[in-house]
Structure formats: structure tokens, C-alpha cells
């Protein structure tokens, strides 16, 4: 079952896609978009999480630039649009919007209290920043782009964070991966898994670099992590 949630901030209001499980009460997960908006890939992730017993909420984080973005990774024109949005995006404002989404999600009927976050690509960076800057109870980052610039913020991290890194990620080069791993691998709240041979977005169903086996492994790790930390 899905619905639309409106989240109000001092800067304005934006919408979020909400998928609900069959249970009357459940923990929640905020799903943080890639550079393609709240598209079918993100809605399907929400629906899958709902099927696993979570309330899933995917906010429209591009609303300050252009509300309602819903594009794919299947054409050159859409990629051009996606990178224009990415370049115009204010990361700090995005984290603020995620914090507002977490607060609104906690107040939803049927949410049992704990709220996690999961993000992919741009959302992977935002999931890391959500972990260190907000009160999310547990966060998961998939191949976050630009995370190496923010590793110092991990000193503020007080709740669990799971990270998935593609070893052949064209947007997170080896040098950036080394910065991330050197800074974070021994942090008591952080669990990191790397995936040999995988490129960026290996878990995006239908994407050019999708790998069903490693996506399944990563998603199973994420599900177990959320069940352990949000239950």
C-alpha cells in the first residue's frame, strides 16, 4: 500500500512516496534517491522494504530545484538532466530535508519509533551525512559519491552505519576509496563491505552495471542490519 506524505519545512513543503507493510506497526526507513529523482527504481525499493516489514519513505530531495523529478538512466538526455540536477543540488539543504523527513516519519501513524535511512549514489553520500548529522537510528550507504570529502565528520557518529563500496566504481576512484577505508574501517559504529569487480550502481535493477549476485548479497546484508538495529 502506498501513499504520499507532505513534509513542511521553514523553506517550503515537499512530497515523499510512502510504502506501508501489512503490519499495523513497524519501524521505518527513509530511502534516499539517486540523481534520477523519486523514480520507479526508488519506488520499487520502497515497496520491497514494505514487503520486508518496514514503512518506507522516499522524499523528493530535488524539490528546491524542480519538484517531481522522475527520470531513468536509459537515455543520454536523461543522464544530462540528472547531472544538471546533481550539480545544482545543495547537499547541506538536502541533509536538512532528510532530517525533516525523519521527524515527519517518526510522527506517522503506524511507525513504531525507530527510523533508519538508506541511500544510493548521491543518496549514498547523503546516507553517510544522515548518519553523522541527524538522529537516524541506523543508516546504509551504497556507493556514495564524494564521501571521502566528509570522513572527518565520522567522529560525530553515534549510531550504526553500514557501507557498500564498489571496488571498480568510476565515480569513486581507488584514491577516494582508500581515504574512506583508512579513515573509517576501524570505527566502532561502521561496517564496510567492498565488492571486487563491481562498478558504480551495481545494485540498481536495470542499470548498465547491475550485478544480481552482489546486489543480492548487499541487500541481504542491509536487511539483516536494519532488522538488527531497528527492531
Topology, element by element:
Elements: E1 2-9, E2 12-19, E3 26-32, H1 40-51, E4 55-59, H2 76-88, H3 91-106, E5 111-120, H4 122-133, E6 138-142, E7 161-166, H5 174-184, E8 190-195, H6 212-230
Parallel strand pairs: 3-4, 3-5, 5-6, 6-7, 7-8
Antiparallel strand pairs: 1-2, 2-4
Helix pairs in contact: 3-4
| Corresponding CATH superfamily | Alpha/Beta hydrolase fold, catalytic domain
Portion in strands: 15-25%
CATH domain class: Alpha Beta
Shape: globular
User: What is the CATH fold-level name?
Assistant: Rossmann fold
The span between the termini is 21 Å
Task: Note the main sheet.
Answer: 8 strands, mixed
Task: Characterize the structure shown.
The structure is a single chain. This protein has 231 residues and is of the alpha/beta class. 36% of the residues lie in helices and 24% in strands. It is built from six helices and eight strands. Strands 1-2-4-3-5-6-7-8 form an eight-stranded mixed beta sheet, sandwiched between helices. The longest helix is centred in the last third of the chain and has 19 residues, at 212-230. This is Carboxymethylenebutenolidase. InterPro entries: AB_hydrolase_fold, Dienelactn_hydro, Dienelactone_hydrolase-like. Keywords: Hydrolase. Residues 14-228 form the Dienelactone hydrolase domain.
For the structure shown, list the relevant keywords.
AB_hydrolase_fold; Dienelactn_hydro; 231 residues; globular; 8 strands; alpha/beta; Rossmann fold
Summarize the structure.
The chain is an alpha/beta fold and 231 residues long.
Amino acid at each position: 500500500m502506498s501513499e504520499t506524505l507532505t513534509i513542511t519545512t521553514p523553506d517550503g513543503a515537499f512530497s515523499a512516496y510512502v510504502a506501508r507493510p501489512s503490519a499495523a506497526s513497524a519501524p521505518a526507513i527513509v530511502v534516499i534517491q539517486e540523481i534520477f529523482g523519486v523514480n520507479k527504481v526508488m519506488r520499487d525499493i520502497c515497496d520491497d522494504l514494505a514487503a520486508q516489514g518496514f514503512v518506507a519513505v522516499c522524499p523528493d530531495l530535488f524539490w528546491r530545484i524542480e519538484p517531481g523529478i522522475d527520470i531513468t538512466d536509459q537515455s543520454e538526455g536523461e543522464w544530462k538532466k540528472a547531472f544538471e540536477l546533481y550539480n545544482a543540488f545543495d547537499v547541506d539543504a538536502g541533509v536538512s530535508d532528510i532530517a525533516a523527513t525523519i521527524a515527519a516519519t517518526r510522527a506517522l501513524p503506524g511507525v513504531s519509533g525507530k527510523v533508519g535511512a538508506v541511500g544510493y549514489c548521491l543518496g549514498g553520500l547523503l546516507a553517510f551525512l544522515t548518519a553523522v548529522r541527524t538522529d537516524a537510528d541506523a543508516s546504509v550507504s551504497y556507493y556514495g559519491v564524494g564521501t571521502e570529502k566528509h570522513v572527518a565528520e565520522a567522529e560525530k557518529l553515534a549510531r550504526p552505519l553500514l557501507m557498500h563500496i564498489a571496488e571498480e566504481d568510476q565515480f569513486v576512484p581507488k584514491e577516494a576509496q582508500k581515504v574512506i577505508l583508512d579513515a573509517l574501517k576501524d570505527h566502532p559504529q561502521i561496517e564496510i563491505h567492498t565488492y571486487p569487480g563491481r562498478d558504480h550502481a551495481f545494485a540498481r535493477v536495470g542499470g548498465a552495471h547491475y550485478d544480481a549476485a552482489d546486489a543480492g548479497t548487499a541487500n541481504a546484508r542491509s536487511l539483516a542490519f536494519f532488522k538488527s538495529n531497528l527492531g
